[in-house]
Amino acid sequence: IGAGHVGATAALAAAQAGVDEIVLLDVVEGVPQGKALDMMQSGAVHGFSGRIVGTNDYAEVCGAEVAIVTAGLPRKPGMSRDDLVTANANIIRTVSAKLAEHAPDCVIIMVTNPLDVMAYVAMKETGFPRQRVLGMAGVLDSARFRTFVALELDTDVRQVSAMVLGGHGDSMVPLVRLATVGGVPLTELVAQDRLERIVQRTRTGGGEIVKLLGTGSAYYAPGAAAFRMAEFLLFGRRTVLPASVWTEGEYGIRDTFVGLPVELGPGGLERIIEIELTDDELAALKKSADAVRSVIDRL
Ligand code: TXD
C-alpha cells in the first residue's frame, strides 16, 4: 500500500523472489498501474513470471496475506521522523480501516514513518492482535550498521552479523557487543573510537541519505528490508530478526511499539526473545522506548 519509492522497491524484490501475486495500491491514479506494467515487463528480462497489479481500488487486495504499508509522506531535509506524525497518522488510519475490511487476515508490515508510532495507529484502527502488526526498522538499521562495518574492514557484508534494537530514530540501540564478522566478535576487530563512529553513522544513516538526495528519503535498502520480513511470512519460513512490536512487559517495557528481537513465523510474531542485556544496553533500550511512547501519548 503506497506505490512510491519504498513500496515499488519492495514489490520488485517480491517479484524477483518469486512471489506470484502482487498488488501495488496508491491514491494517485495511473502511477501504480504504470509501475505495475513496467515491473511485470521487467520479468521477461529478469526471469520472473508473477502477476503484478497496479490499482487505486482496495477490492484488489482482497484476501491478501501480507500488507507492506508505505503510504504517506517521506522526510524533507532538516525534518525529523516525528515531524511526520500528524499527516501520516491520518493516512494510516484510512489505510488501516480499508485493510481491516478487505484483508482482515493479513499481517501488516508498517514502514511509514514514524514507523513505531504508525504501527500503533494501525493496530488500534484494525483491531488486529499484536501478532499481526509488525514495524520494519531493525532489519534496515542492522543492514546499515553491517554495511558500515564491512566498509570499515573492507570485508564481505554477508559475513557481518549485527542487530539494532530500539525505536527507529536517533535513540536506536546498535548492539555492538553482540556483532560478529565471520563468527569473530566485532570488538576484537575494530578499535573503540572507530566503533563509536560506526554507531553514530548508523543512528543518522537515514538522515545522511535524505540530505544527499535533497528530496525524498532512502528506498533501495528500506524496500529490500520490508520485503525480507514479508518473505518469511509468505514462504512459511521461520526466522529471528529485529522488528518493531507491541510490548506487554518484555524487557520491562510496556504499551509502546519498539524494536526487539523476535521469532517470525507464517502467522506473524511468534515470540519476543528476551536476551540478556547489560545495564547500559537496557537503559538505552528503555530510553528509546520512552521516546516512542511519548509520541504515541501526544497522538
Ligand atoms: O525504516 C523505515 N521504516 C523507513 C520508512 C525507511 C524509508 C522510508 N520510510 C518511510 O516510508 C518514509 O518516511 C515515508 O513515510 C514512507 C514512504 O516513503 P517513500 O520514499 O516510498 O515515499 P513516496 O515515494 O512519497 O511514496 C509514498 C506513496 C506515494 O506514492 C503517495 O501517493 C502514497 O504513498 N499515498 C497513499 N497511498 C495509499 N493511500 C493513501 N491514503 C496514500 N497517501 C499517500
What would you note in describing this structure?
The structure is a single chain. The chain is an alpha/beta fold and 299 residues long. Helices cover 43% and strands 19% of the residues. It has nine helices and 13 strands. The strands form five sheets. A three-stranded parallel sheet has the order 3-4-5, with helices on both faces. A three-stranded antiparallel sheet has the order 6-9-10, covered by helices on one side. A three-stranded antiparallel sheet has the order 11-12-13, with helices on both faces. Strand 4, helix 4 and strand 5 form a beta-alpha-beta unit. Helix 1 runs parallel beside helix 2 and helix 5 packs across helix 8. The protein is globular, with a radius of gyration of 18 Å. The model has no long low-confidence stretch (mean pLDDT 96). The structure holds 1,4,5,6-tetrahydronicotinamide adenine dinucleotide. The site of 1,4,5,6-tetrahydronicotinamide adenine dinucleotide has 34 residues, from helix 1 and helix 3.
CA radius of gyration:
18 Å
Helix amount: 40-55%
Low-confidence segments, ≥5 residues, pLDDT <50? Answer: none
**Strand residues, percent:** 15-25%
Ligands bound here? 1,4,5,6-tetrahydronicotinamide adenine dinucleotide
- Indicate the mean pLDDT: 96
The oligomeric state of the chains shown is single chain
Q: Numbering strands along the chain, what is their spatial order in the largest sheet? A: 3-4-5
What distance lies between the first and last C-alpha atoms, to the nearest angstrom?
23 Å
